[in-house]
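## retry 2 of 3
previous attempt timed out at serialization; input unchanged, resubmitting
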Amino acid sequence: MRGSLPSRRALMLGGLAAGVLARPFPAAATTAGDASAGTRPRIAAMDFGLAETLIEMGLPPIAVPDPNTWADWVVEPPLPVDIVNLGTDREPNLELLAALKPDLIVTTPFLDDITPLLERFAPTRTFSVYAPPPGPIYARSVAATRELAAAVGMESAGEDLISGAQTVMDEVRERLAAAGLAGRSLLIVQFLDTRHVRVYGRGSLFGDVLERCGLTNGWPRASNYWGFSTVGIEELSVSPASGIAYLEPIAPDTLDRLAASPLWNRLPAVESGRIYRLPAALMFGMLPAAMRFARQISLVLGGAPSNG
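## retry succeeded, writing output
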């Protein structure tokens, strides 16, 4: 996933993404900081999905683009308080990057245009999760986690993260089954405005998590390789048996305007009160985002539906 505004907002609210290994990392630099030996590499992460993975492995990056948006889109794991702001992902602060002297820069294919520039400052590795052909994003996240862990000398931490994510999926699936919610069908959406949503299909990170948690993704149509389709809200009626779970952040007046919308109020999920509000989870993230999303789904389904 892209790392910052304005490109982050284009990604989050209108679309593109990131994250399978595409560019070789010079062998001499592979152990520039052998974490297992106690010398930890200084890493600049140009993508939030890669950054959240590094944090969960216990090796937080020293810098990311536009960290002030992290709390809106990622939430957890929290960023280190001393994280350096690199500016925007498309136009990082090169003087600052030079001064930081990172041992490694990790990036995604979305930033291939500036990768030759990044390579002037440190060895640069490109990881891809969101790329053609579509899905499966969860499995690609597992593969990219192993590759990233190997690149920074933290293979054991990478395997712990992978097994920990699977444990979360298993626990949530068992909890939902015990509550009689196994097989429940959901549409996972994000409002672009009061007339249009991004709906996450099979093969998206969220779609994969639903299936691993014993739920059903109700969106029946093919999605792009970022895992979503952009549709008018009336098209959500294509899956009348599904509840609708919408992700924060959401514009302050959107819900009030939806309450007055005939299109919205005629949707079967709205008529029957099967509307759920989900705290933010990184839609183009990796395993940490998958774990957060699974936990939030478990919480909202275990309680009373919101009135939306």
